[in-house]
Design goal:
Layout lengths: L17 E2 L2 E2 H6 L1 H10 L17 H6 L6 E4 L2 H14 L19 H24 L5 E4 L6 H11 L16
Parallel strand pairs: 3-4
Antiparallel strand pairs: 1-2
Length: 174
């Protein structure tokens, strides 16, 4: 996975200067070029896409039946808190507990409601596009990302040997 290659704040990850030879500025100028590079890269390649990522590529990869879709869901309150902490600390993915940056947020009910509406709208958009194009997705709950049985199913969905997909021991929740 090349990370969040369509995140408006960075390309791939907060400490990356480029992904597959493209900088943030080059990706912003032509996000389709990033999709082309991912599709042309050796082996199995992918990226994470969230509701606030560049919308110019959404239809293209969602309508492409050659692009496998994995729909990761998480408790919306946990997701909201994690997002707010990530925006505050600049730490979007935590691989080692010792690197954790402490952050605290103030819960804003109206903001959370707006977040829920945006999230539900995005999820319905994904579902509708999958339905209208005759595609399916592998659904994965955040709590299952370390479950070997679920990951064996994910490997099968991707056409991989089950041994090639192993639970990450480095992912730490915000």
């Amino acid at each position: 996975c090349h990370g969040e290659v369509f995140n408006p704040r960075f390309v791939g990850g907060p400490r990356k200067e480029e992904v597959l030879g493209l900088t943030l500025e080059e990706r912003d100028a032509d996000p389709g070029l990033m999709l082309d590079r991912i599709a042309a890269a050796e082996g199995l390649n992918g990226f994470r896409y969230f509701p606030d990522h560049d919308p110019r590529v959404f239809d293209r990869f969602m309508r492409d039946p050659r692009c496998a879709k994995i729909v990761l869901t998480r408790n919306p309150l946990e997701s909201y808190v994690s997002l707010k902490i990530a925006r505050q600390t600049g730490q979007w993915k935590l691989g080692r507990a010792r690197d954790h940056k402490a952050g605290s947020i103030i819960f804003d009910g109206a903001e959370f409601e707006a977040y829920l509406e945006e999230l539900m709208g995005f999820q319905l958009q994904v579902l509708r596009l999958l339905q209208t194009t005759g595609q399916t997705a592998f659904h994965l709950d955040y709590e299952d990302v370390r479950d070997p049985a679920v990951l064996t199913g994910l490997a099968a969905y991707l056409g991989l040997d089950a041994e090639s997909v192993k639970p990450s021991t480095r992912l730490v929740k915000q």
